[in-house]
Structure formats: structure tokens, C-alpha cells
Inverse folding.
């Protein structure tokens, strides 16, 4: 007899095992018809409120949660649904039908939900994005282990042997790179069972890939492009557990993206302090300022897109990775907030040679920003006589 496959979801933190998921999308169409004329005119008035219908099963240890779900129907606030396909959504419960058997400790509940389209504003301090993603990384480890366990069961009698064989491959990857002993990957408790050993070996392997590209970290977009490309090819080496490797890789990229965003916010704060500080001390000595460039909007989007692509690939292999969905939501909010203060780069043409600090003043920048503008234009040979087309922060 075939084992029933459930889709994992959650509603305000209550875990749901979905037998089926139905999403409804309906358009509001205005129709205008005329007597004695075939056909008529139509006008698209937009999409109606999307609907979501879930049939959820509650049994064994999860059985008491059906009572929590029923109580949730009394809540007036918006609820957070982690959809098994589309991720985080804001919803309200419209209808709830329960069929339960207390003696057998089983319940089936049909939930009808309406998706709320009100823009949700959620501002988080940037220093917290690292903590947020690292917490989800730890949660993701448990889900990765569960995915490996389910794959072993699906492979039948040879499942453990296949897992052991592919587990051994990780030790041969990036052998010239050592894993530090104080990183998040090394500190997580993976357990000693076979799924735990597999996830630990995979996590350490993808961390070594990240360490191998350390020389590119000064260019976050290039670093993430190279790392995501290498991790994307890693799956091909694992015949039976490719989706599980994809999930571990996506977790790694999420942690790296959180670190990039956090570091960029701190860099902006330093640059802002340097730009507003005096250029000379009381003795007339030139005061050095930071020439480090913060991420522009395009780079922020590139880093996020690479991570989102990896997460989507992992979810296509296993929809049960809800921690990855939450990491994607956290990173999206951080990127959106970061872009609000991102510096835009524009091209200007200087017809007559002039000093770079004077160009900064002309375009509304403090003269102390000249070193950063110079770093943006490596073609400038003499900063005291600048002409032609140059890039400048606008």
C-alpha cells in the first residue's frame, strides 16, 4: 500500500499536514451587452480576493493541534500562513469544517482562507538580520534531516546503503580547505544518526566552498555569483540525494547573504560619519576617510536573486523546507529596506577639467566623498584635472 504524501504548511505557527491544497484566482469582469447585437464588451476590473483551501489531517502527536486551529478561528488579526507552495501569505479564516474521531485520535479539517492584499510594512534593524537567518538555519537543519530520512525510506531496502555511499563523497570535496572550529556550521548539533551525519557532512562541504571564494568577498555580487554557480553544480555528483544537497546549499547562501547585508549597513554608517567629518584636523593635517563602496541597488538585487533562485530550486525538490521560506522572507524585507538608502550611480559629463572635490560639491556631495568617487572611477589619472564622462553618486 502506497504511503500517503502530505504537504507541510503552518498557520500562525500551528503545523499543518495538508492532504490537498487548492488556490482560487478569480477576475472581476464587467460585461456590457446590447439588444439584437451578437457578443458584447468586457472590461477587466482587476483580480478578486484570492482564496486558499486546505484539507489538513491531524493524527498521533499532531492531533491536539486541531483544537488550537479551531481556536484560531476566533482571532480577529491577520494570520501568517506558510503556504506549502507559495511561502508566506497574510490571510484570514473564512470557513473551517472539522471532522474528528476522538477515539481514534484523528481529525480532518477543511480550512477556507482569504488572502489579504494590504501591504505589510515590517521594519527590522539590520543588525538583527544575521541573528534572524542564523536561527532559521538551525531550524532548517532539522528539516534537512527529516528530508534525508524520508528519502532513505522512499529508496527502500537499499536506502541506507545509498545514503552511506553518498555521505562518503563529501569528504573528497575541497580537501585543501579547512573548516574553522568556531563557525555556525561547526557549532550546530546534528545528532549522530545517519541523516544527521549526512546533513553535517553536506553543511561542512558547502562551507568549504564558501571559504574557497574568500578572496572575492570584497565584491559581494561576484562572490555570490561564483559560490552559487559552484553549489549549483554540486547536485550532479549525488544521484539519489540531490534535492537534499540543494537545500543545504540554499541555507548556506542565505547565511552568506545575511552577512553581506549586515556588513553593508555597517559600512554605510561608517561612510556617512566620514563624509560629515572635517577633512583636516586642528593642526591642518589631512584626515583620511573611508573609500569603501557600499552596495548599490543592482548589487543588492543580484545577491538576493541568486539566493532566491537557490531556495526555489530546493523547494522544488522538497516543499517541506519551511525554514528556507522564512529565510527568503527575512532576506527580502532586509533587501527592500536596504535599497531605500542605497546610493544610485549616475553618469555625468565634465566638459572642462576641474578638481574632483569641486565636482562633488557641484552635484551635492561633500568634498570628503571625493575618495569614494575616485574609487568608483579607476580611469581617472589625475583627480585635480577631471574631464569627460565619470560615474558619481546621485
Amino acid at each position: 500500500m502506497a504511503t500517503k504524501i502530505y504537504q507541510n504548511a503552518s498557520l500562525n505557527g500551528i503545523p499543518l499536514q495538508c492532504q490537498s491544497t487548492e488556490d482560487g484566482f478569480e477576475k472581476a469582469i464587467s460585461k456590457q451587452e446590447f439588444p439584437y447585437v451578437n457578443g458584447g464588451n468586457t472590461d477587466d476590473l482587476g483580480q478578486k480576493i484570492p482564496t486558499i483551501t486546505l484539507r489538513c489531517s491531524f493524527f498521533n502527536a499532531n492531533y491536539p493541534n486541531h483544537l488550537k486551529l479551531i481556536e484560531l478561528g476566533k482571532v480577529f488579526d491577520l494570520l501568517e500562513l506558510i503556504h506549502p507552495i507559495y511561502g508566506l501569505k497574510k490571510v484570514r479564516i473564512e470557513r473551517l469544517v472539522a471532522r474528528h474521531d476522538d477515539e481514534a485520535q484523528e481529525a480532518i479539517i477543511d480550512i477556507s482562507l482569504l488572502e489579504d492584499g494590504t501591504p505589510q510594512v515590517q521594519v527590522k534593524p539590520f543588525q538583527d538580520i544575521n541573528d534572524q537567518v542564523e536561527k532559521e538555519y538551525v531550524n532548517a537543519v532539522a528539516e534537512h534531516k527529516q528530508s534525508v530520512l524520508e528519502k532513505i525510506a522512499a529508496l527502500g531496502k537499499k536506502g541506507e546503503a545509498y545514503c552511506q555511499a553518498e555521505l562518503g563523497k563529501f569528504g573528497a570535496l575541497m580537501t585543501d580547505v579547512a573548516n574553522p572550529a568556531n563557525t555556525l556550521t561547526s557549532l550546530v548539533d546534528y545528532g549522530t544518526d545517519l541523516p544527521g551525519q549526512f546533513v553535517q557532512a553536506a553543511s561542512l562541504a558547502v562551507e568549504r566552498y564558501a571559504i574557497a571564494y574568500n578572496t572575492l568577498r570584497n565584491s559581494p555580487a561576484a562572490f555570490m555569483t561564483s559560490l552559487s554557480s559552484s553549489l549549483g553544480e554540486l547536485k550532479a555528483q549525488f544521484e539519489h540525494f540531490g534535492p537534499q544537497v540543494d537545500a543545504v546549499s540554499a541555507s548556506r547562501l542565505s547565511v552568506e547573504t545575511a552577512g553581506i547585508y549586515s556588513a553593508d549597513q555597517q559600512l554605510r554608517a561608517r561612510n556617512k560619519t566620514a563624509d560629515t567629518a572635517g577633512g583636516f584636523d586642528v593642526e591642518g593635517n589631512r584626515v583620511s576617510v573611508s573609500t569603501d563602496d557600499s552596495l548599490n541597488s543592482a548589487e543588492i538585487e543580484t545577491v538576493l536573486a541568486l539566493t532566491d533562485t537557490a531556495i526555489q530550486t530546493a523547494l522544488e525538490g522538497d516543499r517541506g523546507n519551511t525554514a528556507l521560506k522564512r529565510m527568503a522572507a527575512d532576506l527580502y524585507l532586509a533587501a527592500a529596506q536596504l535599497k531605500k538608502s542605497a546610493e544610485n550611480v549616475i553618469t555625468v559629463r565634465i566638459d572642462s577639467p576641474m578638481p574632483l572635490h569641486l565636482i562633488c560639491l557641484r552635484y551635492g556631495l561633500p568634498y570628503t566623498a571625493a575618495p569614494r568617487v575616485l574609487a568608483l572611477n579607476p580611469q581617472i589619472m589625475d583627480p585635480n584635472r577631471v574631464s569627460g564622462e565619470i560615474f558619481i553618486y546621485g
